[in-house]
Design brief:
Largest sheet: 8 strands, mixed
Number of strands: 21
CATH superfamily of the largest domain: Aldolase class I
Radius of gyration: 24 Å
Length: 539
Amino acid sequence: MQSPAPEQSKTVLPQAPWLLWLDGAHDPAFNMAADHVLLDRAASFATPLLRVKSWAPPYSSFGRSPLHPAALASSHTLVRRPSGGGIVWHDRDLTYTLVLPPGHDLARMEIHESYRLMHEAIGVRLGPGVHLQNERRGADDLRRMRCFDSPARHDILGPGGAKVAGAAQLRAKSGVLVQGSVRLEATAGDRAALRDAILRAFATFAPGGFAEWTPAPDFLRDVEARAVGQYATDAWNLHGEVPAADEPCAGDAPRDRLPEWIRVQSSAESRKHVSDVLADLRLNTVCASAHCPNLGKCFSGGVATFLILGRTCTRNCRFCAIDHAERPAPPEPDEAVRLAEGVRRLGLKFVVVTSVTRDDLPDGGAAAFREAILEIKRLCPGTGVEVLTPDFGGREAPLRDVLDARPEVFNHNVETVRRLSSTIRSAATYDRSMSVLRAAVRLGEGIPVKSGMMLGLGETEAEIRETLSELRDAGVSLLTLGQYLPPTKDHHPLVRYVPPEEFDAWKAHALELGFRGVMSGPLVRSSYHALELYEAAKS
């Protein structure tokens, strides 16, 4: 290995022992369900948990991406992983699972950096000639589906250049899930030696060593329910759809099936090229981070919503799926350049730029918004830009810096009615959001101002009417109204599903109040049909 070993890293990690689950061989549904339940419980673990497991019988696992048609014709039976990546044949390999609680240093790192550090640690323990793949290689669609035929950046290669280890990550509010596979050929077929290499590798990140962990009966019951309800079903394994009985609801909402008007068809195939560009340029989209149900529709229509300033928020709102930390990683100085290049490569007509809230930055991240706007306009002069900003602590100076860059639309969400604001939002206030919107109208000198609300949180009809009137009085001209859907059972409960006809009625009411453009419906989100709303503002 040419890169320095992780022992030389300056990262300070907790001294408490990591949990270690030396598991046996299980069927594929159990293996994936156990990893899923570990991720669900990650926030309750004081330290990371490492699981080492095998498969009986041999099986193929596959990530969240769409299946290549040739893969469906394979004689191998497939189980879909909760994480990403291509097809991996689990016969001559050893697999591991690493679950990180949300506040851990590795969980807070940029995804490629954590991936590199972990693979460096494994690689140096696999013998001479082992090295990392440092460049992204192109591959045809089918090869890309075969994970070990198409090395990605920071994958582990053997002395002959063949891939011997890879991994994928899934980042959620509860923590981070890492699923990795190392081929037995990396240790000349010696399974015990391979397991020892994996343990020694991760021991470099665990200064306190390991403490044996044994699953409790309630954990196993949850695993069995998840296995039967999701990972043993064709709906999930062939189509990537969680069966209706397992779809999350909360509060007093019905728990059997989502209403038909909430359901959307997977459009993962249309997102493939987009995903490749995002990975190559290390860009984040709020579409994926916030679990948006319209993920592929906007991409295929030449519109995308980019998330700048990292994937970790300094606030912890009860409706949001984005990760939280008090001290996220510092902003990347070249982010605006990479973002503009992504817009150019994707040929986007309209771009929404939003961010996590960065209360740790002196300007709240305003400079990053300004740079993104200016760089996109420089490289892609025909592309419209909408910004969806945090409240910047209510300060006008950062807001003015953003508006001076002249985005086509300024957006700041009030999110909900006054009574519920303090319940579901962290640090933000209803009155502060209203003051930001009024200031944006005043400082923007003709830039359309937009805001949005979620319905289904327990608000009353009178409260909705009051909020819409206040938004209009503040000068807001564009509006989005959508159904609140809790990302997990740990988020604020869903009180009710709002039927489409109610959304239609609220749209009519908003237009009567004088809003120039309104998007109102169960699947509407802040940036939904952003270009159409902008065009409505111009008409």
